[in-house]
Structure formats: structure tokens, C-alpha cells
Amino acid sequence: MQQLSINLQTILYKLNTFKSTQESIIQFVEVSYNETLQEIRDTRARIDAYLDELENASLKELDKIRTTLQTSLKKDVDNCSRLKDELQQLGEAVQDLCNKSTKEMEFIANRKCLDKIQECETYMKDSPVKIPSSMKFQANIDIDRYLSKLSGLGSIGVMNPNQLMTVKRKSEYNIQISSDTKTCFITGICSLPNGHVIVVDNVNRRVKLFDQQYNEVSHCDVSGELWDFCLITSSEVAVTVGNAVQFISVRNESLINGRRIQLQHAARGIAHHHGALYVTSGTVLYHYTLTGTLMKQLYTDTVGGNSG
Length: 308
Known about the structure:
This protein is an alpha+beta fold. The chain is 42% helix and 24% strand. It has 3 helices and 12 strands. It has helices at residues 2-97, 103-126, 141-149; strands at 186-191, 197-201, 206-210, 216-221, 226-233, 236-241, 244-251, 254-262, 270-273, 276-280, 284-289, 294-300. The chain has a 4-stranded antiparallel beta sheet, with no helix packed on it. Strand 1 and strand 2 (197-201) form a beta hairpin. Helix 1 runs antiparallel to helix 2. The two termini are 55 Å apart.
């Protein structure tokens, strides 16, 4: 009976362990789902932003054409109103002179009326009635055609975190740019969602942006020695520089230096996860918020050397 009890306890332990593992995986799947959902929404937001820009450009063109058409028409309306008022005033003056005018006054009034009538006839002759101009929008069918062929905003796959990575191909690119003063020393590289590549050049103290063929798109200089960097969003990265973290944005295919968080220790490695920054000093791992608040010291390596 004692052995049976031991066997039961062993099975219960294994069941509990298995249950805990599966529950952890369920939580992991939920986290992965939320991250992927946010990426889909970010993609939609970027597309909406592009469409907003296209719409605003079309509306601006429409307003410009309307203004051009209406300016000429309003000028004609204003001139007609002026001539009409002047004719009415002359007509009223003629009525007043009918019973008490002299021949001299009749002659002057007649002359003024004839001149004004001639002015009106000349104006109408030189300004024929304009044919109404309508505005017509011709949609870019390439946009409709392209969007109608898409089956989604992207593809979604299932990745096995324990799967071994294999090298499928190897390519070499020269990422030295004309303004570099020293031979490049790359300490960080990653790909953006649009396929562009960001590279951290330690010795030239600059961050570089390349297209998919590794042609230079942009670069920005950063004061200090650059070590590592990580993606914060699809358009922002954080770079470790000396005793600080420098944020750099990607806007309209340009790299722009943003805010900088000063730390009380050296900044070497860096990673971002769910709004938290994890920064290493070389021997210590720290947890920071994105605003630079130190949350806790997670780990200290007291045995080895520099741990990155």
C-alpha cells in the first residue's frame, strides 16, 4: 500500500506539473495573440494614415479648382451688381428730372444714361455667359485593383520557439557611407516591418537606415559611443549610448533624434518587451520604464566578466 501511495503521489505531481506547463503555454499564446493583434492594428493605422494623406491631397486639389472657377464667376456677379445699381440710380434721377428739368439738364442726364448703357453692353459683349464647368473625380483604379486582390493585411504563422535556426543564404553588403571617417564597426542591426534595415555603427557614432538592397536611405549622428539598440515601435528604436538611452524615430524615410534618458550606470545591451526596457551595464541587468524610471535591478553577475 505504501508503494501504491507513492505511485499516486508521483502521478499527481506529474499531472500538476503538466497542467501548470499547459496553463503557462495558454498564457504565452494569449500574450502572443495580443502582440500580433497590436501589430495588425498598427499596420491598419499606418495604412489609414497613408490614405488620409492621399485624401487630403485630393481635397486640396478640389478646393483649388473650385476657388479658380468661382473667382471669375464672382467677379462677374460683382460687376453686374455694380452696373445694375448705377443704372437704377440713373433711372431714379431721370424720373426726378421729368417734371422740373431744363434742356441742359436733360442733355446731361441723357448723355450719362447713354454712356452707362454703352458700358453695360460692352461689358456683356466682352464677358459672354460662361458654360457651367463641373468637377469630376476620376478614382485611381490601381488602388482599388490592388486592394481587391489582397487576402489580408499580411500572413500569420505559428512559430516553434524551440526550432533550430538554419542559415539559408549568406550575402555581404558594404554599409560604409561616403561621410564615414572610419571603418564601420557594427554593434547592432535589425529589420523594420517595411523591409528597411537599421544599423548601429559604433566607431562612426551614427545610426544608418538602408533599403532592402542596402542602399543608404538616411542616417543620423549620435553624440557618444553606440553599443546596442532595439525596436520600440515599428517606427522608433532605442540606442544605448555611453550612460544613456537615445530614442530615434523613422519619419518619412528619415532618422530623427528624439528624447534621451540619462542613466546612473553604463548602458550596453538593451531590449524592449511590453512597454518595459531592459538595460545591461555589462554586469548588471536593470528594468526601466519607457520614461526612464528605474523599476528594479534584476540580476548581477558577480562571477564572470562583462556580460554585455
